[in-house]
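cache lookup: miss for this entity combination. No prior model stored, computing from scratch. Input as submitted by user K.M.:
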Amino acid sequence: MTGLKAVPKLDPESIKSACSKCNLRELCLPSGLSGEEVDQLDSLIRVRRFCRKGEHAYRGGDQFESLYAVRAGFFKTNLLNEDGRDQVTGFHMAGELMGLDGISTDNHPCDAIALEDSEVCVIPFSRLEELSREAPALQRHLHKIMSREIVSDQSVMMLLGSMRAEERLAAFLLNLSQRMTARGYSPSEFNLRMTREEIGSYLGLKLETVSRVFSRFQNDGFIAVQQKHIRILDIPKLRAIIGQHC
Amino acid sequence: MTGLKAVPKLDPESIKSACSKCNLRELCLPSGLSGEEVDQLDSLIRVRRFCRKGEHAYRGGDQFESLYAVRAGFFKTNLLNEDGRDQVTGFHMAGELMGLDGISTDNHPCDAIALEDSEVCVIPFSRLEELSREAPALQRHLHKIMSREIVSDQSVMMLLGSMRAEERLAAFLLNLSQRMTARGYSPSEFNLRMTREEIGSYLGLKLETVSRVFSRFQNDGFIAVQQKHIRILDIPKLRAIIGQHC
DNA sequence: CGCGCCTTTGAAGGAGCTCAATTTAGGTGG
DNA sequence: CCACCTAAATTGAGCTCCTTCAAAGGCGCG
């Protein structure tokens, strides 16, 4: 396992992040806000932080103070249960917000670990709350983002509760593909940033099963896999796999 | 399946609900608010609605306008996927809030169905947002409730992704027991309001498996089951089941 | 170039599912 | 109040899909 070596707390580097100029603003917190409201956000998000591959944006148990928007790179969040169980709860790409699960207990329940060299915008939550008291559009948007997280967790529950291995992998690939598209990347060709084990953990499967299903998909001509490099050759067929649960 | 007959929209009965006098206020939205803030909530929650067993508090696809606090009774929420899949996403008892997943799309993604004769407080969401702009404590509390929902969905993901059938059932019973306790009921003796099939749907198991595991627990002396009536005889042993995933 | 980690693939085993039959409980109408 | 009817629950037997255990191959990095 990478990322287990002690990571020194980096002094957060004070760089103006300028949501107003960020090309992710349509995917991130500012989406749907007026120019003025985005300016207010700018004033709030003053700190960006780099995380090299394997480093943490935050750790389970850390006091909750901020949300973290992925500005570049790729993260996983890892839930550590009291009984030693350990599961990937999500993968997060540029424009996505991490840390909402920390609000309820004032502690982060999970680790956020960079799967490649990455950068996050640090968003002090109490200042975000302040601002959203004054800007109803921002308030509503924040609520939508939290609600979207609930919805997406529930659809993972559905996946874990009722899908077979092939369906899970198909849904996973289609989800990734769709998120890549939203970011202007190719929907059909990309590099996986995570290992088979991490995919398996997220999908409730063993790494061998993930590997086998990938091979099966490749034999069937749905995808072309070469280690971490994936090309999706037949999106409709992948969709059909999910639909055909007799 | 019960609850499939057409349910006429009940005219919401206008009853002052008075959070300030509700004995669930420590579990529900008002928890942690000052007297004055609770009064403000009172002014907002003017409508209660009765749902007889099988009736809906809201339906998947309905426009999102309000949150629903369970005032009495017991609900399940049921997610209906586009591909005909269908899964119970949660069970909700008195004092718990339903409908947060509707904020993101302005439509409820799931059905909320009463599993016994029940009553809900209808909380107009835009008025709740208004009020929470003026009352920081309420704002923070709302955020905590939403975050708690995220955390609890994630712990279901963990359950579905990494636990075996016995562990899932043990966790399920302990969770129910703990919620009963918080409401002043016996932690060890209660009636299940849902069927084996609904439990199975929630836990990603088939109803036969649920039944078999209950029988096994009974043979082992951990619980006493008689249809829907459950007595938990050995809470530590149930806890141990979850811990012992070799 | 060698080492470690990740991935692939095979074979055997097991947990939970499917199919099926029986029992029990709860609601309804005579 | 009892008989009936339907929905829910229990239990068994065989099967399937995924896991476990094991070994070999490939890629990247020092």
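stored under new cache key. The CA atoms of residues 148 and 154 of chain A lie 10 Å apart.
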